[in-house]
Write a structure and sequence with these properties.
The protein is mainly α. It has 14 helices and no strands. The structure holds fe (ii) ion (2 copies).
Length: 369
């Protein structure tokens, strides 16, 4: 046995006496003949409320979901593979107090958010799906959210930040807590295994929550959430952390696109229309929480970045997410305040800008927005 397995072989557990073997019996148990089942057709499948066979992958009804799974598997990395040596120097010797304040609070927000995202998809959403090809991508997503959490922890450890303080920050800073509390409220509404999605009101609540997590939490807050760190990266600072965040961003782009597609399919199958008032409320709450967050992390503007730029980009991306769902734009006229952000997400365009391995990892085609 090699050292890796030795580590997991718990020698401290005291040996216990082997249980006595049951008495021999001459009775044989006859297995009941299995009943034959009718074959499944792709058209039997539904996003939710389906009665097909959840253990049977094909025939696919949602072949695009399988493609998402294959695409997600092309973005493999481990946080320990990325060199963070320069980041340690930058953080302790080059960042200004305002930049350190921003950096730490972004990290504190993101790490809490990713755990929440993992719980949402793994505990609240995945079990409600009734087609295995949807669940399989979501299983990968659960792993990716855990990987993201590992990434932040790796950054926090490498930079020697005070863990207890960083991880508690979302609790003690109202502007960070506001975003997390909003997401927790949405999650709690659907975090029940006995949620009856044949009830129209409950189904609407579920769709709204999924829209919040895919379109806002991942599609806007995460998508734009790395921007302040990318602003440092563009000035040659904290490049290891930023590279890690680029990998995460790749995943989040897929999480958002997948989630929005699932909701569109669900609405079509269930003939469901989202209440415009409820959707408007979703955007208004998200905007207010984002404004408070941006004002806190960027109390002082840093070179090339400010709270106004952050909020402007949030609104611009929010309009895009709404259009992807066939909904009206929540912030008409919002302009891109960070025109470089999309290029940052689509790493292939930035081949010469980053001297890292990011582009080498992506072997597939361009991402679907
Ligand atoms: Fe994530
Ligand atoms: Fe995600």
């Amino acid at each position: 046995m090699n050292a890796f397995f030795d580590d997991w072989d718990d020698a401290s557990v005291p040996a216990t006496a082997a249980p006595e073997a049951p008495a021999q019996t001459t009775q044989t148990v006859q297995a009941a003949p299995a009943a034959a089942l009718a074959p499944i057709k792709a058209s039997d499948k539904r996003v939710v409320n389906g009665h097909g066979d959840i253990n049977q992958l094909a025939p696919f009804k949602y072949a695009w979901a399988w493609e998402f799974f294959l695409k997600a598997n092309r973005n493999h990395w481990a946080p320990t593979e990325i060199n963070m040596a320069q980041d340690v120097q930058d953080y302790h010797h080059k960042l200004t107090p305002a930049e350190r304040h921003m950096f730490e609070n972004v990290l504190a927000y993101l790490t809490t958010s990713d755990i929440l995202a993992m719980r949402n998809i793994g505990l609240a959403v995945m079990e409600k799906m009734t087609a295995p090809e949807l669940q399989i991508y979501q299983a990968r997503q659960v792993y990716e959210e855990a990987l993201h959490t590992w990434t932040y922890q790796h950054c926090i450890e490498t930079l020697n930040l005070e863990q207890e303080e960083i991880y508690n920050r979302y609790r003690v800073v109202p502007a960070i807590h506001g975003k997390i509390a909003l997401a927790n409220r949405r999650l709690e509404k659907i975090l029940r295994s006995d949620l009856d999605l044949s009830n129209r009101e409950t189904l609407h609540e579920f769709a709204l929550s999924y829209l919040f997590f895919a379109g806002i939490f991942e599609g806007c807050w995460f998508y734009n959430g790395f921007s302040p760190i990318f602003a440092l990266q563009r000035r040659g600072l904290m490049k290891g952390t930023a590279e890690q965040f680029q990998y995460i961003m790749r995943d989040e782009v897929l999480h958002c696109a997948f989630g929005l597609r699932v909701i569109r399919e669900l609405m079509q199958e269930e003939n469901l229309t989202l209440d415009p008032k409820a959707v408007a409320e979703l955007w208004a709450e998200a905007d207010a929480a984002e404004e408070a967050y941006a004002s806190y992390i960027l109390q002082e503007a840093i070179l090339g970045y400010s709270a106004d730029l952050h909020l402007g980009q949030f609104r611009f991306v929010a309009n895009r997410r709404a259009r992807q769902m066939g909904l009206s734009e929540p912030f008409p006229g919002a302009q891109a305040t960070l025109p470089w952000l999309d290029e940052q997400a689509n790493l292939r365009k930035e081949k010469n800008f980053f001297e890292t391995r990011v582009t080498e990892y992506q072997t597939g085609g361009s991402l679907v927005w």
